[in-house]
Amino acid sequence: MRGAARCIVVGVLGWLACGARLQAVPVTALAFSPDGGVLVSSGDHALEVRSPKDAVVQRRIECPLTKVTTLSFSADGHWLAAAGGEPGLRGDAVLLSWPDGVLRHRFGNHEDLVMSVAIDTAGKRVVTASADHSAKVWTLAEGAAPVEALTLTGHSAAVLAVAFSPGNGDVVTASADRSLKVWSAADGKLLRSLGQHTEAVQALAFRPIVAGPPTCASAGDDRTVRLWQPEIGRMVRIVRNHEGPVLALAWSGDGRRLFSAGQEGIIRGINGDSDVIELQWRSGPDWVYSLAVSPDGSALAAGDWTGSVRLHPLR
After folding, report:
1. Would you say 260 and 277 are in contact if contact means Cβ atoms under 8 Å apart?
2. Helix or strand (DSSP H, E) at 15
3. Could you tell me if 59 and 100 are in contact, meaning their C-beta atoms sit under 8 angstroms apart?
4. 3-class state of residue 247 by DSSP
5. Which of 218, 183, 214, 182 is nearest to 197 (CA)?
6. Which of 30, 96, 105, 143 could form a disulfide with 292 if both were Cys (CB 3.0 to 4.6 A apart)?
7. Is 92 helix (H, G, I), strand (E, B) or coil?
8. pLDDT of 6 above 70
9. Whole-number pLDDT of residue 23
């Protein structure tokens, strides 16, 4: 990472801390539309809609957020959530109808940047996680603005990643305080805290359900990827052999492989049922901040510090 010694925190917060020195905006968020028709990336005050075949920008959608840090499509492809805000001042999210890309709602009410956003599988709720140490769950209703339903507090540092469990809809958060927390989506009650990471936790990704209880992967500055069954609080395994902080995770659609990347600029393909790293290659010359697998499983997109998006064929 260029100028890394001048940055305050590894990961997204790090590049925000030294953002005035950047010549390009790092790509911190990537999302394929559920039909695979486009790849959307974060940009400078905008979302960039790219070809899923070569990542060429086809159009830009202006965004009112000062920083865009995270993206999430609804499962039916009707909504795209983008979030970010202004570091140290406020955090917001916007909801765009898709595929027209029209901004329908702006919401957030966070006191610092929103670091992660997710829409549940039913398309009824959105969760936002913020550097203000909190996460919020919002309900969605057709034609109405998202309504704040729950505020999740308990982390002692920035909440850097969030996800809905595909099993029971509970919320999992990951934080710079080195912990994961599991929350009831019904009432916001803290169900359990998982504290085996030894540094900030930067990324979360649930495995597409194959069999058995839902499995969630986490990764962070301690150079590990860890697999969990959050419904019972069990750590299944730990994957080592990363030589730098791990900032991004993405599962293949069939759940057979988990991809990781981060400071090294190296992408690793991890067997979904073991700690074996089956594939490894360099994505580019700099830190990788975001990963996304195409719905048909043919390509892996990687966004990096230089502002580049690269597509890597998977078959």
Report:
1. no
2. helix 12-17
3. no
4. strand
5. 218
6. 30
7. strand
8. no
9. 60
pLDDT digit string, tens, across residues 72-124: 999 999 999 999 999 999 999 999 999 999 999 999 989 999 999 999 999 99
Separation of alpha carbons 312 and 264, rounded Å: 17
How far, in Å, CA of 199 to CA of 124, rounded?
33
Please tell me what DSSP assigns to residue 99. T
What are the beta bridge partners of residue 137? 127, 150
Helix, strand or coil, per DSSP, at residue 139: strand
Which two tokens mark 284?
A: 């580019």
State the pLDDT confidence band at 211, using cuts at 50, 70 and 90: confident
Q: Which amino acid is at 55?
A: A
The pLDDT of residue 5: 28
Strands 144-153, 134-141: pairing is: antiparallel
- What is residue 10's predicted lDDT score, i.e. its pLDDT? 52
Q: Look at residue 270 and tell me whether its pLDDT is greater than 80.
A: yes
| pLDDT of res. 209 | 79
CATH code for residues 25-313: 2.130.10.10
Mean pLDDT in residue range 193-211: 94
Quickly list DSSP for the chain: -TTGGG-SSSSHHHHHHTGGG-SS-----EEE-TTSS-EEEE-SSEEEEE-TTT--EEEEEE-S-SEEEEEEE-TTSSEEEEEEEETTTEEEEEEEETTTTEEEEEEEEESS-EEEEEE-TTSSEEEEEETTSEEEEEEEETTEEEEEEEEEE--SS-EEEEEE-TTT--EEEEETTS-EEEE-TTT--EEEEE---SS-EEEEEEPPP-SSS--EEEEETTS-EEEEETTTTEEEEEE---SS-EEEEEE-TTSSEEEEEETT-EEEEEETTSS-EEEEEE--SS-EEEEEE-TTSSEEEEEETTS-EEEEE--
